Amino acid sequence: MSFPDIHRVVTGHDADGKAVAILDGPLATVVPLTAIPGTVFHEVWSTSATPVSINNDTDPTVGELVLPPPGNGTRIRFVDIPPDTEDYLANGAGRMKDAFNEIGDEAASTVKTDSPHPLMHRTESVDYGIVIEGAMTLVLDDSEVELREGSVVVQRGTNHAWANRSGNMCRMLFVLVDGKYEAEIAAALDKRNG
């Protein structure tokens, strides 16, 4: 099963301040992962400051794929996620550093030999994950939550993975917002990981 291409429209202003479509067409950056065949990142847009400078600058998605949002910024992307396979689950932990390196954040991987899923990871961000098509399982340290089309996860810097146990492709939309752990949570994470 394949999903339709993403059609992106980016607005801006002409010299007279009139609203115009600056970009209207396919995404500039669509990256199939080699470490996890079938997984495809569709980069829509990103911002690198708050408040955001509203301008007619060039497409910020062109370049290397990076998992987290920029400092003080945001990132929006679609991700197509294939079903988990027996081989992937049995041997995936050893390949996941490669996968996270491919998406520009090897340090995000938290997988250990006793992890509940080989894609366990954490970023210091608030991520809105929306199931657009298909089904997904949100895997946390000691629990799981079944997701369906229309489910929205507000992921607040927690250790997690996305497990596709449906047997079919799943497309999710992610909006990532740069964050900072409060001192109490940062201390608890340091103690847990130390």
Automatic annotation (TrEMBL):
Q: Which InterPro entries match?
A: Cupin_2 (IPR013096), OryJ/VirC-like (IPR047142), RmlC-like_jellyroll (IPR014710), RmlC_Cupin_sf (IPR011051)
Domain named Cupin type-2: which ranges? 119-175
Please give the Pfam families that the UniProt record associates with this protein: Cupin_2
Q: Read off the CDD domains from this record.
A: cupin_BLL6423-like
Q: What is this protein called?
A: Cupin domain-containing protein
